[in-house]
Amino acid sequence: MRLQLTPLVLAALVAGAAADDRAEVSTTVFAEKRDGGKGGLVVIHPQALLGVDLGRFVSLDVAYAADAVSGATQAIFQADAISMATTFDDVRQQGTVGLGFRGKRSRVTFSGTFGFERDYLARSVGGDAAIDLPGRNTTVALAYQHGFDQVCDKDNGMLSPLEAKALVGDDDCDHGKIFYGTNTPGTTVWRDLSIDTAQATLTQNLSPTMNMQIALYGQVLEGFQSNPYRRVRIGTNAPQEHIPDTRARWSVSAHLKRFLPPLKAAAHIEARFYDDTWGVLGGNVELGWAQYFGKNLLVRFYGRIYQQQEATFFKDAFFYETESTAGEYFTGDRELSPVRDITLGAKLTIITVGEDRPVWGLFDKLQLNLRGDLMFLDVLPASGAADNPVGVEKQFIYGNSLIDSVGLTLGLLGNY
Amino acid sequence: MHVLAIVIVLALASVGCGRQAVRASEKQFLADQVMTFDDDPHDTAATDHVRSNREGAAGGRGAGGGGCGCN
Q: Which of A28, A280, A323, A365 has a CA between 20 and 30 Å from the CA of residue A415?
């Protein structure tokens, strides 16, 4: 539950498969700083994908991804969170299979995903279709996915939300039947979460050196969405967090790219707006530059700024401790807090094309990618300073240093 | 705010629809990998994965199909 690899991400990975046979492996290492001598949070995220053509019109893609997480996490959302940090280790694995059919101007892909970890089962099916409109300068794509996940939770019987206990690492989450979790009465229950996601994308060539893309996204989640481990300090008690069962969200983004032939470079700008029924309103802008150095070296630089306002029921830890809940709900989820973050990154790609003979005796084209990101996070107060004299600096355990986290990705992509 | 976002999207879309068609022989630069939207789905997946654990907003990457019609 702490990890939640998004099935849609993997499905999109499969759906976006190129027509060529291809193999890709990559590993991302993400490290986030922790304050108060609690070390850090480290996530190792390996991925692999193999795509093969089955004749002229059919392709098969198989993808695998995993998360190995270790480090300190927050035990209770409270004004002084550092004293309540605890350490943990967890592993999540996920696989996706996609079957694609393509014609001269169109393609259709169907995919299925299954992911599991100790306390979370992710299952989804979906499909997407894309067509080039006459003139072949406009591409329209539609995608839909249905997920029917299960989350392991503490069996709290008839206890009210303010009395509910949180799941702990020693609780038995039985998914011995692999695809379905089995309740352990008195200890744990598996709760359902359905996720319906739809996307529409319009891609348009504007000139021989410029194109753009508009994307619409909508998602409805129905079911248990709390982190079963997370507790929130309310007065002298610390019950499991309690958030609504229904969430509807949508976003729209616009992306513009321009190639600059004299410079052998391209620039891009991307803007996105996001809104949901929990009151989270956000947006981001990204600027990027891609520069070729000769035929074999491509370097990309990018900067991104993102900001969101908090969910209507999110309050700073001090409020919950001193004023009680925000209506029916209470949460310590930082994803629902007011936050601003900036990412600065670069990606280096070394391209090797087999002209006379295949690269490594197999590949028509081989790319080695190395990417690095620096992330700067700024937690904002959910209420005015007058209502929160303790401040928000200590309510989450991640750092107050300049650089909050670092991401490094090393990948190899081969087309054969 | 919602109306403004929709107006911006429709305005951008109408700009695209009003352009003269790009001929197949003119798509050399559009076919370059840096002009492809989401040219590295693996990388995008890893990035979205990291962000989804830090940010409440989701989606907007598009549903693929961002080719240039170059084939």
A: A28
* Alpha-carbon gap: B33 to the closest alpha carbon of chain A (Å): 10
pLDDT for B10 beyond 60:
no
Cα separation, A84 vs A111, in Å, equals: 42
The C-alpha atoms of residue A156 and residue A166 are separated, in whole angstroms, by: 9
ipTM: 0.84
Range(s) of the domain holding residue A141: 7-415
Which residues are CB-contacts of A12 (< 8 A; sequence separation ≥ 6)?
Answer: A143, B41, B44, B45, B61, B63, B64
List the single residue in B28, B57, B68 with the smallest CB-CB distance to A280: B57
* Nearest residue of A to residue B49, measured between CA atoms: A5
pLDDT of amino acid A49: 93
For A112, list phi and psi in degrees, rounded to 5.
Answer: -135, 145
* Backbone phi, psi, residue A175, to 5°: -125, 50
Question: Would A2 be classed as within a structural domain?
Answer: no
Which residues are paired to A284 by β-bridges? A272, A306
Structure confidence at residue B4 (pLDDT): 61
A388 or A187, greater pLDDT:
A187
For chain B, the domains span: 25-52
Cβ contact, residue pair A12, B12, below 8 Å? no
B18 contact residues in A (CB cutoff 8 A) = none
Structure-derived torsion over alpha carbons of residues A75, A391, A244, A221, reported in degrees to the nearest 10: -80
Mutation choice for B interface testing from A201, A397, A408 by most B CBs within 10 A: A201
Q: What is the CATH number of the domain that holds A38?
A: 2.40.160.50
At A397 the pLDDT is: 83
Q: How many domains does chain A have?
A: 1
pLDDT score, position A366 = 93
Chain A residues close to B48, C-beta within 8 Å: 6, 9
State how far residue B42 is from chain A, nearest Cα, in angstroms. 6
Contact state of B37 with A257 under an 8 Å Cβ cutoff: yes
In the chain, the amino acid numbered A318 is: F
pTM of the model: 0.88
Q: Which residue of A has its CA nearest to B66?
A: A203
* Pairs across A and B, CB distance < 8 A: 243
Render pLDDT for A251-268 as a digit per residue (tens, 0 to 9). 999 999 999 999 999 999
